[in-house]
Amino acid sequence: MAGAMTMLVGAYFAFTQFDLKKILAYTTISALGMLVLLVGIGTELAITAMVIFLIVHSLYKGALFMIAGAIDKTVGTVT
Questions:
Q1: Host domain of residue 33
Q2: What tens digit of pLDDT does each residue of 22-43 get?
Q3: C-alpha distance from residue 12 to each of 24, 59, 62 (Å)
């Protein structure tokens, strides 16, 4: 239940943002909710999906944060 609520709240806050880094941060919160939800399900398939999602998420989200930082610096919106 907590994982599903975290996932939904993170997704809602991501939709309300305009800053690239904040959008990525809130989608990360949503992804963490998904991970908790999968652990809560507890089946072997859910745990396997959780491990794969954790690895994939870390690989693509790291690259997206680097790109968002480069865009912010290029455009001059770094605060």
A1: 2-75
A2: 999 999 999 999 999 999 999 9
A3: 12, 23, 21
Using an 8 Å Cβ cutoff, are 29 and 8 in contact?
A: no
CA distance 1 to 66: 32
Token match 């939709």: residue?
Answer: 15
Separation CA 4–CA 9 (nearest Å): 9
DSSP string, the chain: -HHHHHHHHHHHHHHT--SHHHHHHHHHHHHHHHHHHHHHH--HHHHHHHHHHHHHHHHHHHHHHHHHHHHHHHHT---
Q: What is the pTM of this model?
A: 0.87
Q: Residue 14 in contact with residue 30, Cβ under 8 Å?
A: yes
Number of domains within the chain: 1
